[in-house]
Amino acid sequence: MGEKKEPLLFRFADAVTNILETPVVWFRETIVEPNRKVYPWYHQVYRRVPTIDECYTDDFVCQYEANVQYQKDRMVDSEIVAILRNRYEDCLLFNQEDGEKLCAGVREAVEQATADWCAKHSDLGPLPDVKEAFMKQKHRMVWERRHGPVGSGMKQKAEF
């Protein structure tokens, strides 16, 4: 017995589909997809401006851009801490009986993010500046070089 042939109507529908679909698929695969900007994030990532330590002392535009970038970074860090704190509170409300045990990972993340925020942004006053934050970082690095990590106590002087 021979092969079963498709009805003429199905062959005609396949031909029309191929005629209409083939140019569209070709255009998408050869023109659209190679020229598409693919970002692994949900928003476009812009180039960061130079930091304050990369600016010359007489380049006020660079210093202004660094200050604006610092303000944005501070706002993002503050929002991260707020979001983590809200997640922890929601976790405690959802798990009322075993909340402390089940939400321990979120609590550690909140504490770490808060400690990082405080190390970078606290004690700078109500209107922090990028120069103040940079000096705070420099002073902390000098302290750690001389006395060990902050909070670990002062290291003993070595005897020669």
TrEMBL record:
Its record classes its membrane topology as:
Peripheral membrane protein
Q: Name one GO cellular component term.
A: mitochondrial inner membrane
Q: What is its main location?
A: mitochondrion
UniProt cross-references to InterPro entries, sorted A to Z = NADH_UbQ_OxRdtase_su10, NDUFB10
Q: Where in the cell is it found?
A: Mitochondrion inner membrane
Q: This protein's superkingdom?
A: Eukaryota
Q: Which UniProt keywords apply?
A: Electron transport, Membrane, Mitochondrion, Mitochondrion inner membrane, Respiratory chain, Transport
Whether Electron transport counts among this entry's keywords is yes
Please give the family membership noted in the entry: Belongs to the complex I NDUFB10 subunit family.
- This protein is called NADH dehydrogenase [ubiquinone] 1 beta subcomplex subunit 10
